[in-house]
């Protein structure tokens, strides 16, 4: 392989712009060779790349994610890092929990309840929507997971989950905060799992809807491909892989507020909606705003893609942010327009903010329906709020991964409104 310049520093400096910029400099091909963290890497782009990447004969996950990402965002031994049979058995745990009937409605109802309480508390003062959404989501997902968590602890869980996401892709203080947050939450949840297995009920509760096992029970009793229970730390990692991404929907809620602020007329469509517009709006938020920059794995064997050799072990990256702003795939990609999705669900390989392929068998996010449901709920709730948006810094810096409106989106609530 020819000596290629390592892209780690440009990635850290350019953030979301790195992949589109790299492709542009090479004439926008479907595959560009580079190096990342000292490793040969290939950046893939486009619907054919999505299909290629999500074929597990092509791309494996074991060993693909760097330690600093595991120690902050996903956790050691997480489902994200497994392949083959080990992945299928662990993935079934998430599919059964997150994709079963009633999950989206159950979580959405809990979010609605906690959001209403939160909004009641803002009367006559301001609120930072990002922080409020994170706390509401933490309360709701803890209820849903079966964790009996006092009010203060839910706020701490929200802050720790935000820290884990905020610090995964950066060196420095944000990264160390993320590591501490993960260590704290893993330790506490591992203890809860041990207590549940030991018959102590103090820290867990039945599903509020009374339907089926809670996530806590399911994870505590899950048997892996080797027939054994998860060790308490890995069980905690997987519980956090339910709790943390639910809290991360706060990023999307802040983006939804940003979109409504920039295009206030869209709120009318949401207010007049029977549900279809809110869903289309949620899809467009996930397409338009930068959240996941790319996903990655390792070439399972010597392969070819887009005219490039892909030697076994190459780090293969699938461009997500660039995919959603490619004018060949999305007419006028920098226009926020929910109508793109009105009356039509995205086809395979088109909208990939949570990965591509089959969520039940591959690595695609099993929480996608939940995300869309929660985001649609937030969009409708935000459209119904009578708030002022004071002067603030609403810029969304592209060099920062993950990014969000700098102010977190502050609102003030003049009178009793919901
Ligand atoms: C996997 C994005 C919400 C649980 C993923 C992947 C992405 C993603 C990009 C990896 C795909 C890949 O590796 O190829 C997001 C985004 C979300 C979100 C942007 C919005 C905040 C959720 C929610 C849950 C969840 C709400 C659970 C309640 C998971 C799990 C995996 C995953 C368990 C691992 C799947 C596997 O490796 O098989 N998500 N997700 N995510 N997500 Fe999400």
Automatic annotation (TrEMBL):
UniProt-listed Gene3D superfamilies: Cytochrome P450
What is this protein called in UniProt? Cytochrome P450
Q: What are the UniProt keywords, alphabetically?
A: Heme, Iron, Metal-binding, Monooxygenase, Oxidoreductase
Coiled coil regions, renumbered to chain: none
Q: Which family does it belong to?
A: Belongs to the cytochrome P450 family.
Cofactors per UniProt?
heme
Q: Which InterPro entries match?
A: Cyt_P450, Cyt_P450_E_grp-I, Cyt_P450_sf
Pfam families (alphabetical): p450
């Amino acid at each position: 392989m020819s000596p290629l310049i390592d892209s780690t520093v440009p990635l850290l400096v350019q953030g979301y712009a790195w992949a589109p910029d790299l492709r542009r400099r090479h004439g926008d091909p479907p595959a560009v060779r580079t190096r990342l963290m000292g490793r040969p890497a290939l950046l893939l782009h486009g619907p054919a790349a999505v299909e290629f990447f999500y074929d597990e004969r092509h791309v494996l996950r074991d060993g693909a994610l760097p330690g600093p990402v595991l120690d902050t965002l996903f956790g050691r031994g997480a489902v994200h890092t497994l392949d083959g049979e080990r992945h299928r058995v662990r993935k079934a745990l998430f599919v059964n929990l997150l994709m079963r009937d009633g999950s989206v409605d159950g979580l959405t109802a809990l979010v609605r309840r906690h959001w209403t309480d939160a909004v009641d508390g803002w009367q006559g003062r301001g609120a930072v929507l990002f922080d409020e959404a994170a706390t509401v989501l933490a309360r709701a997902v803890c209820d849903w997971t079966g964790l009996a968590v006092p009010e203060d602890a839910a706020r701490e869980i929200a802050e720790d989950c935000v820290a884990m996401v905020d610090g995964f892709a950066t060196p420095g203080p944000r990264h160390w905060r993320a590591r501490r947050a993960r260590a704290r939450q893993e330790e506490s949840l591992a203890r809860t799992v041990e207590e549940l297995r030991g018959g102590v009920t103090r820290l867990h509760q039945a599903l509020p809807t009374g339907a089926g096992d809670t996530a806590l029970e399911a994870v505590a009793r899950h048997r892996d491909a080797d027939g054994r229970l998860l060790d308490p730390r890995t069980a905690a990692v997987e519980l956090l892989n339910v709790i943390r991404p639910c809290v991360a929907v706060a990023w999307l809620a802040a983006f939804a507020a940003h979109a409504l602020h920039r295009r206030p007329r869209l709120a009318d469509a949401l207010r007049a909606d029977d549900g279809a517009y809110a869903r289309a709006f949620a899809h467009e938020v996930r397409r338009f705003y930068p959240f996941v920059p790319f996903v990655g794995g390792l070439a399972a064997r010597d392969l070819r893609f887009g005219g490039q050799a892909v030697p076994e072990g190459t780090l293969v990256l699938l461009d997500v942010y660039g995919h959603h702003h490619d004018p060949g795939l999305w007419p006028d990609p920098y226009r926020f327009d929910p109508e793109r999705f009105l009356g039509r669900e995205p086809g395979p390989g088109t909208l990939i903010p949570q990965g591509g392929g089959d969520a039940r068998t591959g690595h695609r996010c099993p929480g996608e329906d939940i995300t869309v449901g929660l985001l649609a709920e937030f969009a409708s709730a935000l459209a119904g709020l009578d708030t002022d948006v004071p002067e603030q810094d609403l810029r969304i810096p592209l060099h920062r991964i993950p990014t969000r409106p700098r102010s977190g989106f502050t609102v003030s609530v003049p009178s009793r409104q919901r």
